Structure formats: structure tokens, C-alpha cells
Amino acid sequence: MKTTLANTRLKVDKLLKKLDSYEGHLGFDTEAAGPLLQGRDFINISYSALLGLSVAFEDEECFYLPVRHKGNNASFMDLHEVAKRLQDFAKRRQLWAHNCKFDHQVMIRAGYPLPGLLDSMIAAWLVEGRNKGIGLKELAARLLDRESPQFDPAIAHKTGQEVLQYACHDALNTLQLGRYYCSSLDRCEHDFWGCENHRKCIRCGMTPSFEGWFYEECDFAMLLAEMKLQGLCLDRKKLAEVRREGKVELDKISKVWNEYASGISITSSKQLQELFVEGAWVEHGRTATGAFATSKQAMLHNLNNANSAQGKGFAWMRLAHQEAGKIVNTYTDGLIEEALQWADKRLHPDLHHFGTVTGRLSSSHPNIQNQPARGNWAERIKACFIPAPGMEFTSADYSQVELRYFADYCGGQLHKAFSSGLDLHQSTADILGVDRQLGKTINFGFLLYGGGARKMAGLLGCSEKEAGGKIQLLQEGYPEVDRWRKKVVRVVEGRGPIPWCRTRAGRVRFVPELQPAQFLASMDEQERRKYVKNLQDKYKISDLVAGQVERIIYSKGKRLVVNYLVQGGSRDLLVLGMNEYRRRAPEGFSVVTTVHDEVLTQHPIGRGEDARSILKECLEGAGPKLGLKVPIVAEPKTGSNWAEVK
Fold it and tell me: Which pLDDT score is estimated for 427?
């Protein structure tokens, strides 16, 4: 590797000349510094500064352009000229970064956004089918046999020369890993489980290549970067009012509790054990230590099944106190504290691209996906999320998207129900002789994700034998479900050396659990013992008989296949819809955040009709692009806060 510190006009001209005549791919990395977010080990992007950027060419010549280091730096005109050329490479899909979401944010802050970046971390995630072990230095050591310099937290206090090797290694690693994975992306094709009608590329209508979806994932990373920088406004005055009311509710509940349960703290799980011992509450599960469970599920059970009215009252107070406590500590204090860390006093949640195995986003700081969902408190908290000044919200939820995706795979009665507009939840309720709400619960928990007789018995309040009969009726009502599950598992099992499945978009997940003996043999002794102990605790099995562990693991593997295809497929639908909205939305329109199957956007006041039309077309149009025949439904609403658009 040949390195050059481009901190003089002569050396910058050398870099510019090479960029002007270059036609290949580039590796790219940024170095930035700033204060850390409170309690975290990464920088607050709203107060960050670009220290410099590195560029690697395919002949392994690398340049580092220092901008804000100690000592001699390049000028900001030098930065301007280099960044403008890099923008052209990004537009042509020739610029690689590793975790491009961060680099895009840094360059937006510097005034040079890089939409079109390719991401070697996303490529690794897609090809290897895992969301761990795909860090830059780990991959470089494993695939390139290259040990790279380690990051120094004091980078902001170093000269450009002192960070030259570190920065150039990162850019070169990024380029070479990107090119390595690119060859794998080109070879892959979709697998639509034998349904030839679905074999259409989302771009050209021909047999699709995996590379096309890689571009979608990179564009989605760009969108996540832009959403984080934009942030989400809070009405802090209204939020403070909700907090005060929550505190009043807490004090009121505590006062009544202390009158009837003196000496027992409503917040102490240990002290609450007394209410089980005294018979006020009935047991509903135990903790890992053998204590009576005091979870929300245990309290809900006692709300209906406690031995006395007083016991039911205690359960109600415990639930109400927990809910009000969350309002005060998490949903008001927590949100305000997060917002105050940022220069614009907005929330800037981290939406993690690789947060879950299925590809569904996870969220942190704050967890925007864990806001109250139902009840009076939920509506009041949602009303505190507001658009930027001069803007309004438009939001749309995918309707029953996982069931629809599942129905498209299975066909039969499920497909017919959605295609003809029948009420699937009522149909299931009629089959089982229950009300529609239970029919809805059963569709998601049992038809879709295959719950067992014990779980059904708990839901219906009947014996396991009767529950088994209900499950049998469900299977007879929708015979296509069992046929599809068996077919899919058989196909996945037949792949080797490790079984794997793939969503319609081409995202892979390996399922070693379908080979239980080999799966256990791949662990060391300590890891295997821990895994088996966890199974015993989860399934409440004291002594495992021969073959039982393998059967449990195999059953888990079958569930993982279905979950990945349905949840992962639904997630791909959301990604495609959000990307299309980003491409089509007029200036001033933007995506604010996403929660599960909902997309929240904002736009200038008075443009709601345009926003609803575009959002609906983009979200619903994603279904046919992924080959779905079942109609995908999203109904947008416009309002002045988040509560109004729910």
C-alpha cells in the first residue's frame, strides 16, 4: 500500500488528477470528532466535525486529506474540490464505504452529501446472512489477512501524519472487501419457492440479480442517515404536562395501595411475594430463581383470576402504577433528556439497519418503536410528537402485512380471503367458534407462527386436549398452511452444507438448527451446556431424555425458516416502499421515522393530499414489485401531531 498525506496543494493536485482520469471503484472513509452522547461511546453527530477523509484506489494507492488536525492541513477549497469529485463517483455507484450511514451523515454535516454510496458492511450482511462479525477490521483480518491499526480515541489531537496509516488502511480495506463481496452479489439470484409467476426483477422485469437489492439496501442506509440527522420535534411543554399528570396518578395509586397493603412496596417484586403467600394472588409462572412471577402477564392473569376482589384490585393497582411510572420515567423524562443532548433539541433515534436477525429495524436512544401503543396515555404521548415548524405529518400503516405476505406464499383460502376482501379474522373466529378479537389473536399467534396446544389452552382457558382440537380445526380450515410449511422446510433442509433460506429480495439466513446434531457439535463443551440449560429453563424441562434436545432444536429451526421468510419479507416490502417515497417525494417532503409497519412523513402544511397519494402509491406498489399477488394495503392520514395520524 502506498500512502500520501494530501496536505499541500501539490499533493492535492496529484489526488485530483488521479480522480479525474480514474474509471474504477474507490474506497472511502471519514474521520470525525466531537463530544460523546451522554452515557455512550460514540459521538453526537450534531456537534461533530470532519477531521479528514481517506480515498483508496484499486492499485492500492491511498490518500488522506486532513482538514482539522493539529499541524498542517489541506485548505477548505481543497476539501471542496475533492468532495465534489467524490460526489460524482457516488452518483455512479463507484464509491465504497463501510457503514455508509455514518459517513453520509458526516459528509452531510460538512456540506457534501454522498447519496449513492456503496456499503461493504451491507454487502457482507447480505452474502454471509448474519448481523454480527461484519466489522471492518474483523473482516479485513479474516478475508484479506490484514491487521489494521486500531482506532485511537485521541484522534482529534493528532496530526494528519499520525493518523495517515490508520485512515488509509480503512479506505483500502473497504474497497477490497466491497469488491470481494461484489463478486458474490453478482452470482446470486432470487428464490421464490418455485412460484414462477414471481420471477420478476424489481428493476428490469427479468430474472432478478441479488445486486439490485444490494443497491436498495444501500439507499435505505442513506435514508436512515438522513432521518437521524433530521430528527423528530417534541412539544416539551405538553410533554411536561403529561409528566405532571403521571406523577399525580403515581401518588394517588401509592396512597390507596399503602392503605390496603401497608408494609409492602408496590415497586418491590421481592415484597410482592407476600401477596402470593397470603393468597391474595394466584401463581402465574415463576422466575428463573423460583420466585412467583410479578410480570405484566402475571398481573393481567390476577386481574381476572385472583381469589378475591381485593386481590384483583391489587393487580389493577400494580399494573396502573407500572404504566404511570413508565410515563414519568421513560416516556417524558427520558424523551426530554434525549432531546436536550442535541443542538436542535429534537429526538434523533438510532434506527439500526442490522438490529434483528430477520432484518426488522431495532431502535435506541430513544427506542422510538417502544412508545405506548394503546389507551389514554398512549394518545397523549403521541400528541407530543410534532412536525417541524410550517410542516404537518402524513403517516401510513401497512394493514396486516405479515398475514398478507404469508397468504401470498401459502395460496388457497388465505390468498382468496385477502384477494376478495373477506374478513380473515372473522373467518377464523367462525371456524373455531370464538369472537373476532380471539380470531385475530389466533391468526397471528397460531396460524402464522404455529403456537402449540399449551399456548392455545392458556388463551382459551380450556384443557390442552380441547386446545389441540381447536388447532386441528384451524389446520383443516386452512390446509394450504401446513402444506407450504412442510414444502419450505424440505427445500431448506436440502441445501448444504448449512441449510439456508432467502427472502424474495434475496436476503439470506442460515438455519443450522435444521441439522441439530451438527449444530450442537459445532459448540464447545461450555457453550453446549449453557445452550441446553437455557432450553431446559425455557421449556421447563427438568430431565432431558435422549433425542429431546435435538427435537426441540429442529422444531425451532422450522419456526425460524417461516419467521424469516414472512417477517423478513414484510421488512423488505417496507424498505422498498420507503426508498421509493424518498425518490419520488417533492422538495420539502421527507420521511421522519418508521415504527414496525408504519411510515411517518412530514411535508409543508397544505400538501397533505399530495403526501397521501405518493405515500400510498409507494407503499402499496412495493407488493407487485416483489412479486406479491395478494393486495397490499396502506391508508395514509394527515395531521398536526402523531396522535392525529394514527
Answer: 85
